[in-house]
Amino acid sequence: MADRGFTLVEVLVAFLLVISVMAGVAGLFSIATRAAREARVQTAMLAMAADEVEAWRALPWDALTVSPADALDRDEDGFADRLDARGAIVSDDDGAAVYIRRWQVVGAEPGADRALALRVLVMPVAAPVPARGRIVTTLRTKR
To answer: How much is the pLDDT for 132?
Structure first.
């Protein structure tokens, strides 16, 4: 008579506790997975913007041209391209584009001819809203 074991009520209470803890962990896992995916996308967009900054900095000063004022708002020839998930340039009609990259070159100060500012915007093609994209800004001066 010393062997008691567990009652059915005790087993059910323990089972409900385990289930509720597992449901909470599953919810946290879902949130963490979504946050990691978003961080990966944001990092990729920043890297793609930085690539354009480096390419722009490598150009000779005479090759730099000022862009239209609304170059970040719409695709402008010579100031926009489409990128695949790895950052490689793809054609507009390819269908492989994942990101839109646009850049704007303006005088750093009104009337300044020795300094230019570059703003690069990278955003997803699926949701082409500048607020979802990333912008990198840099300055370049004439030596």
So the answer is: 79
Integer Cα distance of 97 and 109 in angstroms: 35
pLDDT for 2 beyond 70: no
| CB atoms closer than 10 angstroms to residue 71 | 20
Determine, yes or no, domain membership for 1: no
Confidence (pTM): 0.76
Separation in Å, CA 25 to CA 12, 56, 91:
20, 47, 43
Domain range for 26: 8-141
50 assigned to some structural domain? yes
Number of domains making up the chain: 1
Burial of 50 (0-12, 13-18, 19+ CB in 10 A): middle
58 assigned to some structural domain:
yes
Strand partners, 104: 119
